[in-house]
């Protein structure tokens, strides 16, 4: 009988947890969905759409940007955000294949 062990690539586990943890927040999920719907949108527009303070939107966008889930493009005095479709597709693939876990 083969011995089972825990996945030991700690760096990969840490990155995966951070990646999934970034979307495990309702506001970040709302931000991602709003950006997907709008294609390109700035902080002021997101703030109006989601009824959030601009500082709150900016803080959540920083988390998403650091994990390369959203990208910013500066046009004039505004930064317009779009999603990294490749990373969003990866999240969707991971979550759709992930088995249900009872708490």
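^ structure tokens above, recovered residues below v
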């Amino acid at each position: 009988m083969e011995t089972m062990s825990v996945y030991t690539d700690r760096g990969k586990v840490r990155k995966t947890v951070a990646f999934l943890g970034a979307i495990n927040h309702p506001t970040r999920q709302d931000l991602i969905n709003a950006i997907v719907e709008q294609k390109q949108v700035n902080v002021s527009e997101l703030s109006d759409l989601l009824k959030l303070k601009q500082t709150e939107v900016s803080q959540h966008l920083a988390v998403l940007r650091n994990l390369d889930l959203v990208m910013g493009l500066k046009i004039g005095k505004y930064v317009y955000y779009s999603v990294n479709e490749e990373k969003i597709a990866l999240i969707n693939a991971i979550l759709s294949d992930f088995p249900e876990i009872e708490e």
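The longest strand covers residues 70-75.
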